[in-house]
Amino acid sequence: MAPGNTGGPESPGEGKAGRSSNSAGVRWARRVQAPSVSARKILKATNLIRYIYASALASAVMATAGVALYLLVFPSGVVLVEAFVWFVEAITFLSLAVAFNIAASRTVYYKARFEILRIESLMALHSALIGVAIVVFIMGKAVFSKGSEPTPIMLALYPGVSGLVSYAIERYLFGKLRRLEVRLVSLKFVAEKLKLDVLLEEAGAAAIIVSNLTGLTIFETIIVVGVGLYLVYGLGSIALKNLLYLVGPGPGDERERVRRQIELVLSDMGYKPRRIRVESYGTFAEAEVWVEYPARATLDKSFRTSVAIARSLVARIPELLRAVVIMVPVRRTLVRRYQRTGQRR
Predict the structure, then answer these.
(1) How is residue 276 annotated by DSSP?
(2) Which of 33, 115, 140, 256 reaches 20 to 30 Å from 6, CA-CA?
(3) According to the model, what pLDDT value does residue 82 have?
(4) Do residues 96 and 123 make contact, with C-beta atoms less than 8 angstroms apart?
(5) Greatest Cα-to-Cα distance within the chain, rounded to the nearest angstrom
């Protein structure tokens, strides 16, 4: 029975069409294969991007509310700046999610080209730098503003509510991160940035209230500048961490965490690692592992064992997409062989 045939007799005039359809089905079956473990991990991480889309939608709603207050209630510079921050965050989160979706689809299509996933860290770095630029702009506006009249106290509700919304989204995202096997870098970046934004927004509300109570805008300037410096430090740290994903093997703490997981899996399998090298792309990583093995083992057995170890590492460690396992002789065996050779001479 040809693949794709139902088993019934061919009707007149359909034999040629049936054979061509079956041959097309065979070609398609040869091209389509079951997804690998690495591909399933990437696709699973792509499903998590919906949380970033939700954050982008919430940011767009808050930005629209701020613009409406500015146009319909009172032309407050503080409210306009907060709305601008939300608007930029909506664009940032949306571009981050779209970039990861594109990178993930291209990686699955080109199979082993996992380096494309570095675009996730590139977008996070870009977003952090944009955040720094926005904070510096807000600080400059607060310092060099010539207005002597403070913002109406009723409009302090907008930055105050904005801080609560940022906190709620941040708690929601961190709750999702704790339950996930894969630590999605883009999702973690969004949560960390919202955590910093809470300070900026609540500081803006506090600045408006203090300025109205005292009648002095200097308090508004002091609070905004102080919190802004802290935000520049926090966003700068995020930018540096994502830069390490791009220009090197990745941050040391992330690589050490994957290395400990590799050691644990090898210990469970009864093997001793001699050398472990981990390179992180951001969310995912790959590893080169040297495993000690008896020197008397045949080449075929060593190869099959290395493949089995590599598959176990990729299957059991969520962040690992690829593992290269090299079997090396046990050191004691090499020492005994060297001593025997020296004695014979």
Answers:
(1) E
(2) 33
(3) 79
(4) yes
(5) 97
In a domain, 243, yes or no: yes
Average pLDDT over residues 301-312: 91
Name residue 328's beta-bridge partners.
Answer: 292
Give the residue-averaged pLDDT of 31-52: 68
Q: Of 62, 56, 138, 227, whose CA–CA distance to 70 is shortest?
A: 62
Same domain as 237, residue 124:
yes
Q: What is the pTM of this model?
A: 0.62
Which own/partner contact pairs does 336-340 have at CB distance under 8 Å and 24+ positions apart? Answer: 337/295
Q: What residues have CB less than 8 Å from 261, skipping those under 6 apart?
A: 316, 317, 319, 320
Split into its structural domains, the chain has a count of: 2
Residue with tokens 């940035």: 193
pLDDT of residue 181: 65
Task: Tell me which residue of 328, 311, 315, 312 sits closest to 272, measured CA to CA.
Answer: 328
Q: Are 287 and 278 in contact (CB under 8 A)?
A: yes
- 31 within domain boundaries: no
Same domain, 236 and 307: no
Tokens of 3: 């693949």
Q: Is the pLDDT of residue 65 over 90?
A: yes
What digits encode the pLDDT tens for the residues 147-198? 567 778 888 899 899 989 989 888 887 777 776 666 677 777 777 778 878 8
> Rounded to whole angstroms, how far apart are CA atoms 313 and 336?
31
pLDDT digits (tens, 9 = 90+) for 227-285: 778 778 878 887 888 888 888 788 888 889 899 999 999 999 999 899 999 988 777 88
| C-alpha closest to that of 38 among 334, 323, 328 | 323
Which residues are within 8 A (CB) of 317 and not within 5 positions of it... i.e. 6 or more apart?
A: 258, 261, 262, 265
DSSP E strands in the chain: the ranges are 273-280, 285-293, 320-329
Task: Write the CATH number for 184.
Answer: 1.20.1510
Tokens of 238: 């995020």
Distance of CA 245 to the CA centre of its chain: 11
Torsion of CA 267, 272, 277, 278, to 10 degrees: -10
